[in-house]
From TrEMBL:
CDD domains assigned: CAP_ED (cd00038)
Gene that this polypeptide is encoded by: Cnbd1
Domain of life: Eukaryota
PROSITE patterns for this protein: CNMP_BINDING_3
InterPro entries, sorted: cNMP-bd_dom, cNMP-bd_dom_sf, RmlC-like_jellyroll
Cyclic nucleotide-binding domain sequence ranges: 319-433
Gene3D superfamilies for the chain: Jelly Rolls
SUPFAM superfamilies: cAMP-binding domain-like
Name this polypeptide is given: Cyclic nucleotide-binding domain-containing protein 1
Natural source organism: Octodon degus
Amino acid sequence: MPISTVPSAIFSQMIATSNVPPPPLRSIPPLKLSGQINYGQLDTLYHIRSIHHSWSSCTAVSAHNTFIKQYPKIFLHKKTRLPKILKEVPKRKHSGMDGSQYHPDDSHNIAVHVRKAHGGYTLYGQIGSAETFEEFLHILKKLPVNRTTYEHNIVWKMLKTIPDLASRLNNEHLKILSKNMISECWVKGSIVVGNDGLYVILKGLARPYTTSFENLIEENDLSGSLITQISAAYDQGLKTSPTVKNVLPPGDIMLRQWSTFGSLEVTPDPELETQPLSVVAEEDCEILKIPAKDYENLKLEKAKLDDIRKMKLIQKCPYYEEWPTLSIRELTAIVKWKKFPAGHVIVESGDVISFVAFINYGYCKIYRSIIGLVKLPSNKAKRTRKLVYMGKLKEKESFGEISALLKVPFSCTIVAGSDVQMAVIEDKDLFELDEVTQKLMVQTAKPTFGHLTD
């Protein structure tokens, strides 16, 4: 009987594959332990001997009871958490100081009440958070050239919160000076003389320390408060000078954080009679110094910029475009800035104006007083005065020269059309100018809308 081709092919394939090695053995995957079974208790339950080796009825019953008791222990139970019982926290009684430290003079110190009313910090309280204050101290120890813009702003914002600095310096001056301020460290017992600037105590305590002559001490009977005397070496020519003794003022006067001493005025040769208040450190102190020379230089620089601004304004006015620079500088020295709100009547018609004005920004409306006829119901007419709008004065224009110098009544009424800033020269300053400058003003200026007549 012939063999089928299909089984023969399968058979040949089996022979060919008989030499192929078996596949490698694979490990059984590890079983994941259940999180709900206690396998230690399960193993203990499994090895109860009486269940496997004892066949008596008594032991079987005891083994069964043991099994039943141990069986629930193989299951893990989640611990139930009970809700937390909230306890009522008693409210603290307010001391009335809103977190600020009490000072006996607070009730009579207007600076404390003003800052409280404006939502600021009190004079003796902590300014800002502790982290901000420490960052402030760290920045002040750096050289100003090494500080970033962010650090300069932190110093400026902290200085604005010090009441004494805010009252002495405007915001613009304080911002400029803050970029060059540094802090100084003084050990306990050091004497800080405040004759070259304004000092602010940042950390520590200090006590006022003044000097006086020996005869003044005798007159005021302050010999009992004399604490220390500093001997000085004098030249032969100064042997006859009176003895100077250093005394502490009577009373418990203590300078604390944010207190200030010294002066912003430059004193080139400070004398003992006019020496500003100095202090002696009662403990290690960190003190901020604002040099008086820096403040003086700042004021001089501001004055120069202000003079340049005034000079440019006058030069751009039509009547003064061809004036010599020397004459314009004479006017600049006596010019003052003034502001008028919108709607303010600056000059009324018929009045002699008491100043010369140069408009820096804004504009003014010009009205002319005229006599008109008003028709009455009885077919009659009545004369009355009315203000007629004639035009306006714009920026870089001036008025008042003729009226102020020649004492001529002003022919128009000037009303501020918007908020106006003017450079003003008062009549008392005008007449102190030399005659050449006065005549030059009269010759070059013209009456405001003087070509119009009634």
